[in-house]
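Sequence in, structure out.
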Amino acid sequence: MTNKQKVHNIVKEASARCKDLNGYNLLGITARDISKALGLKRNYISHLLNELNRESKVIKINTRPVYFIDKTIFEQMTGKRLSGSLVYDSFATLEKAVLGKEQNMESVETSTDYQDPFSKFIGFDGSVKYQIEQCKAAIKYPPNGIPILINGKTGTGKSFLAQLMFQYAIQKKILPPEAPFLIFNCAEYVNNPELLSANLFGYAKGAFTGAERDFKGIIEQANGGYLFLDEIHRLPPEGQEKLFLFMDKGIFRRIGESGGWRKAKVRFIFATTENPETFLLGTFLRRIPIVINIPSLKERPLVEKIQLINIFFKEESQSLKKDLHISQQALKVLVTTDFKGNVGQLKNVIKFTCARAYNLHSNEKINKDYIEINLLTLPEHLSNSFVTDEYLQHSVATELLVKDLIIKSQTEDNMEVSSIINKKQAETYKTFFNNLAEFSKTFHKGHIQEATIDKLTVLIDDFFDHLILDKMQSYAKDDIRNIRFDTILNTIHEVFELIKSKYNLKYYDNIGYKIAGFVTQSIEHRYLIDLNGYDRKSKKYLDIVAEFFPREYGATQKISDFLKSNLDISLTPFERYVLLLYLVGMNKYSEPKRVKAVIIAHGFSTASSIANVANHLLGQNIFESFDMPVDVKTEEIIKQLKQYITEVDTSRGIIILVDMGSLEEIYDGLEKISEGVIGIVNNITTQLALDTGSQILQDLSVDEIIKRITENHRLTYKLIKPVGKKKKAIITTCITGIGTANKIKDLIIKSLGEYSKLLEVIAVDYLELKNKGIKNSIFSNLDVISIIGTQDPKVDNVPFFSLEDIISAQKEAEFGQILNEIIPVDGIKQINQSFIKYFSLESVLNHITILNPDKIVDQVEGAIEILQYELKVKFASDMKICLYIHLSCLIERLVTKTQINDYDKEIILSFKQCNQEFINIVKKSFSVIEKLYSVSIPVTEIYFIYQILKDKLKNR
C-alpha cells in the first residue's frame, strides 16, 4: 500500500465517524493529525492530501487549520453528488452548497467552522485581542454602532482593520451585503475647509462658481454603511466642528441649501498616527467613545512577527510560482529590525528581497527548484546593520529562531510558524506570570491578605534567583548582554542612591543585582511573550497594592521614570507590578535578631554574585553585599558600610567577608562603631560564604563562628569589640530635599577638618525627620548632638541650628558648647574659623547651587525688597540670609526642572484657597526673576516660602 493510499484510508476513517451535518460536527481531519498517525512529515502529508483533492477523492475546507473529508462518504451521508472544485472556504459554505441552508449567524461565532474576519489580522488572539474585542463592541452597539478611533503608527494596519470591521458587520448581518464602505483622507483637505465641506456634505447646484450640478457628499454616499476617515488629525478644527451636528443627530445640509435637513445613517471609523488629545478638539474627541491603540511592529511578540513574515513570503512565493527557503540569519534580521514603517515597510522589504533573489536565481541558472533567501538578498543597509550590531546578534529573538523557514508555493499548508521557534526559554516566564496572576486574584480594593504577600515575595525572589543563577551567569564577561546588564545595574544603583533615604528603603548591592537581572531579561523576552493580557490585569492589581504600600509604590514609579529618562527603557505595567511587590517584600518585614553578614569584594558585581548564590543555596537572605569596582576607593565602601551598620540591628554582631588586601583598611575604618562584635575575615569564596551562613543559621555568636570558619579554611581575621557607647553625629537636612542636605553636609565636614573622624555627619530627608521624629532608626544607632538645616523638623530633645545661625555666627557659643564633649577647646576655635570661611553667603551659594552667586544675590535682593514692601514687614538679617539660600535653590530647581514633588496635595490645595493674597504678592515680587529665567514659580514653592516666613507673618 502506498503512502497516498494510507493517507486516504485515514481520511475515510475520520469521515465515517461523523454521523451528519447537524451542529457543525463534521470536522474531517487535518494534515497534522495524519502526520502524527503515520509518523511522516506534515509537509509531505499536505502534498499527498492536495493530490487526492485534485483527483476529486477528498474535499478540502480552507479553514485554519485546513480540513479534509472523504468525498464518497460525504455524498453517501448527504445524498447529494458533488461536482466541480472540491475546495470550500468553510464548513458553512460547504453545507450551504450541498443542502441550501443558510447558517444562523447568531450562533456561528461559537461553532468550529466559523471563520471570524478579524482572524486575518495577525495578533487577533494575541497582542491586539483586546483591541478587536473593542471593535466588535463598537460594531454591535445598538442601534447604529458607535464611532471608534484607531490610533497607531504608520504601517501598523489601521486601514486593514477598518476593512475587517466592515466585513464583520456584513457577516453578522448588522449591515446588508450591498452596504457601502467609503474612505476619506482628511490630509487632502487640510488647507481648504470649503472643499472639505463640499466633499463631506455635498453641494447644491449654483452654490458657488463651478457648482453646475447637485453633488452628493461622501456622508450621503456612505448612508447605510461605514465611512472611514483616515488621518483625522489633519482635519482642521472647523472641519471637526462641522461633523458635530451630524454625529449627534444624523442630519446635515448640502452647501447652498438653506431650508430643511437631509438625513443619513453613517457609522464612523477614524484613524490617526498622532496623539488624539493633542490634535483633536476635546468636544470632538468626546463624541468618540472608543479609542484603540494598534501596537507597532517593534512591540509585537516574536510569534506574530514570524506569522507576518510567513504571510508576506507566501504571497511572493505564489506570485513567483517558486518555493522559498528563508535562512535563519535572514529571519533574524527581519524580526530584529526596527522598521519605522512597521508592517507596511516589512512587506515592501520582503517584496524587494524576493525580487532580488529571483533575479539572482534566474541569472546564475542555479540548479535548485526553490529560491534561497539569505543575508545577501536582503537590502544592504539591513544586513550590514545586523552584522555589525552585537546587540542584535545576541538578542533573545535571534536565540529563539532554531531553523530555516520553508514556503511551498503550490500548497496551502506550510511548516508551522511555531516550529521554527524555541519556546523552552519562555516556559519559565509563563509559569511565573501565571502563578503571579493566580495569587493576585485574592486582591480586592481595600483588602489584601498578608499571607498572599508572603507567597508572592517568595515567588518573585525565587524567580529573580533563577534569572541570575541560570541565565545571567551563563554569559561570557565580554558578551554584549553582560555589558547591557552592567549598564542597567549601574543605573539601578544610581536611582537607589537618590531615593532610598526619601522612601526609607532597605537597599544593598545584591538587591540591585536582582532588579537589574529582572529588567534585562524582561526586555529581551518581550520578543517572545505577549504581555497584553498580563498588563491589563496588572494595572488593576498595581492600584490595589499601591493603596496599601504608597512608599514602595512611589519608589517603583521613581525607578521606572529614571530608567526611561536615562536608558529609554519603559517598564510595562506588569513589570512595574513585579517590581512593586519585590520592594514590598524587601522592606515589609523586620530582620530576624541574629548575627548580620556582609560580603565585600573587588569587581563590578563579584560580591553581589557570591551573596546571591549563597542566599539561594542557604534558602534565606543571610548576606548583604558591597561591590568594589576598580575605580571606587576603599574609603567609599567603608562609608557605605558604616551607613549600613547604623541602619540595622548589630547588637548580636556582624561578620564581614572581604577579598584579598581589604582587611586592614576596613578594620581601621570600622573601629568602634557597632553595638556588637565586628568580625572581619579575609579571602572570600562561595564556600566560605556558605559555611559562614550555615553557622549564622545555627544562631552562634560572632566569636564562635569566626573560630570555626578560620580553623576550617586557615584564614586571617580581625575582631572589633564594642565599646558600649553610640557614636556622636550631626544631621543635616533641608525642606527642599536631600540634595541640598548633602551639600550642607559636605560643608560641615570641610569645616570640621581633622575632627570629622570623631563624629558622623549624615544627610537626612526633612519630611522623614519631621514625620518620624525621634523614632527614626538613626537616633537609636547614633547619639545625634544637633540638626543643621533650613527649617526646624522639631525633633524632641535634639537642638536645631538654622543655616542662617551658622552663617551669621549668632549661635557660635551654643554650637561650640555642643562640640565641647568630643573636641578640645583649641579645636573648637579652629572649627569656628573654618565656619566663617566655608559658611559665608557666597561660599554657601557656590556649593548649593549651580548659579552665579553674585548675580543671584542681586536678583534675589530686589525680590526680597518688593516682598517686604508688599507684606509691610522688615526682615532681620538672619531671615534675609535664609531667604537668599532658599530662593537661590528655588530658582535653580525651576531652571533645571527638578521641582519638589513630595508634598501633601490636600495641604497645598488648602493653602491655595486660604492664602491667595500671599500667593499674588510672591508672584508680583518675583515677576522680574520669572521673566529673566523664563520660569514660573508654582504654588508648591510659594507654600515653602510661606512656611519660612510664617512666624514673621503672625506678628504683622
